[in-house]
Amino acid sequence: ARRTEETGRIRFFEHEEMGSGLAIERARWLRLSNDEVDRLAMIVRQHMRPMLLAQAGGTPSRRAIYRYFRATGPAGVDVSLLSLSDSLATYGPTLPRETWARHLSVVRALLVAWWEHPEQTVAPIRLVDGNDLIQVFDLEPGPLIGQLLEMIREAQATGQVSSRAQALSLVGKWLEGNCGSQGNSSLKMGM
User: Fold this and answer.
1) What is the 3-state secondary structure (H, E, C) of the chain?
2) How much is the pTM?
3) How confident is the model at residue 29, as a pLDDT?
């Protein structure tokens, strides 16, 4: 993945995808299980995420933490640790103190969320399920139900929603704003 720009700057575009492919090959050669291969591929593919969060500045928001673990799942802890190793390997002794401090701060926030309060930002407790949405809003089963459930979980992770009533209200408002008066979707909101 190494490329040298006209200015002489060395870049590694798409190295996480290439590295993931190599990791899969090596893992299969080692006869790792499919779960182990998938986890290893996830770790390598996502290892840049914590550094990108650090480059954004500040502590990651609850939404960013939720989306990070939604994308990485349980491998998020491993991804965080690999990202620190990658940063040290990339910069060596020239690693700027501020860059390292920001990266450590982000990884700490991710690990605290994972280990100390996962039910808040990592995997909020389900307030409603697809059957609830189908019954309350007279919806048909399909992809919309999954999208609405994901919208609720993200709203929980950010602290916008903390009860069943709030979750249903959020969905009702979304349906009203996006579906208008089509069908009974916004009228059947008896809780």
Assistant:
1) CEEECCCCCEEECCHHHHHHHHHHHHHHHCCCCHHHHHHHHHHHHHCCHHHHHHHCCCCCCHHHHHHHHHHHHHHHHHHHHHHHHHHHHHHHHHCCHHHHHHHHHHHHHHHHHHHHCHHHHCCCCCCCCHHHHHHHHCCCCCHHHHHHHHHHHHHHHCCCCCCHHHHHHHHHHHHHHHHCCCCCCCCCCCC
2) 0.79
3) 94
